[in-house]
Amino acid sequence: MRAISITGASSFIGQHLINILTRYDDISINAMVSDSANFSLCSNNKISFCRANLLDYNTLKNFVVEGCTVINLAYLRNCDREANIKAMENLIGICERTKIKRFVHCSTAVVAGRVDSDIISETTICNPVNSYEETKLQLEEMLLFRASGKFESVILRPTAVFGSGGLNLIKLINELRSANIIKNYMKSCLYNTRKMNLVYVANVVSAIHYLADAKSDVDKQVFIISDDEYDENNYGYIEKHLMNKLGYAIYPIPKAPLHSFILETILKIAGRTNVNTKQIYSCQKLIEHGYKKSISFLDGLDEFIAWYKNSLEAKYHRSTSGVTN
Fold first, then answer.
1. Angle subtended at Cα 227 by Cα 155 and Cα 306, rounded to the nearest 5 degrees
2. pTM for the whole thing?
3. pLDDT tens, 232-267?
């Protein structure tokens, strides 16, 4: 029986990951949740729950066992950089003490920051421009340094993750549902071919599982997971697809796409990191290592839309029956 310990188990990615891992008979899971976590997974005899606090080393003693694989999905969004560094120090410390086998750290592709290249890979020199990106990069560097010679470490950098239960694309859908068709039309003309850099959650989860289980060398490696190889992963296509599938009114006149320079200038003024409307993140390294995606971007997009429709229907039935959350 392989032991896997997961931080951030009740997160968006965490719940999708555990849903997959519980299908395997040879895996036991120790899932870390906070006292306040609303853990919605059904009970399963393969899962043990560890109520722990990454900022309190003493609470982590029952989280890992010798030879296990740790999957770190946690990030303390409501805390400062020092707290996140302390959390990583505590987690690495307990992993050193317990002599784990491998540490899979889920970071983010945006640690690359603002770079000139249209294609970002693992060899791109990072240029983080805000505190979040700087902190995420520092956590990566800390892990690779501290783990060296003690246990295997591997980093996964997903792009913008979307899927059932996630928030990415929900804002766009809400805007399309609104009656402000003129505002939506102008935004569509402005954003049109801008890359969205989305990745479906099932591909992120399967990449994590692959790296946790990989027999070939992944130690000290960094991998990007994205769906950017799909030309359809851009604002214009996704907007039109959502409008068609959800039955929203199409714009009465053809779009008048604006030059990308205008949007890039606006993004710079707004202080955004990624101002390059053509920029993509390549996951070719992970593919060449042997990983195979579990689903195409377009099928993932349709799965997300189906989930959204079902969620709306469920919400409607609850409201009409007088049931509240």
1. 115
2. 0.93
3. 999 999 999 999 999 998 898 988 877 788 878 888
